[in-house]
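Fold it.
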Amino acid sequence: MSQHKPLPIRSAPVRNAAKRYPFMLIGLHWLTALLILAGVTLILAREDVSGRALRLWLLEQHRSLGLLVLALVCVRLALRWRYRARLPRHGLPRAVAVASAAGHLGLYVLLLAIPFLGWAQTSASGQDVRLFGLIRLPSLLGLDFDLADTLQGWHQVAAWSLLVLIGVHVLAALWHHLLRRDGVLTAMLPGPRSVAGARLAESALRTSSRAPAHAYRYDKR
């Protein structure tokens, strides 16, 4: 005589299903990096040219790129909040996780502060702020040349601090990739794999959320 005895089988949890960031966050990350590189290149190239018109044009493009970075960072923060439940979890040691969080916080603070300092400095010097010469933005401050000089100094200090922090960020990513091999770097790499990985992770998360807590298997005895 055969009996059907239910044997509970707990469904396997999807651990760290999101191996990559959502592809929108990946795209914004690398676009922000490219804009920062372009902005630094423009302001350094400005030091090597002598024509006043060209120097002014380079400065205006630098300011416009900074404003684009400001907009992209705001979008990135909004998307990180929206996708917070689907961001990769790498199980880092507490000290590493705290250092990573502090580094990311510093990056975001500087990426927000630097364009605002440049915008305020331009306003205090009595100049218009225009996005690529087309869209005129409101002035943040009234005319004040002394304040403009102070803000310019803060802007430069913040910019150099950002470059140093970006260098630390790059070294940390290489440390994760080459020594720990924990997937932190590959989670943010661009390309078709990142898009496919993000969609696969989203599908896995949806499937796991619909799976029952227990399944049953019947054995004949």
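The mean pLDDT is 81.
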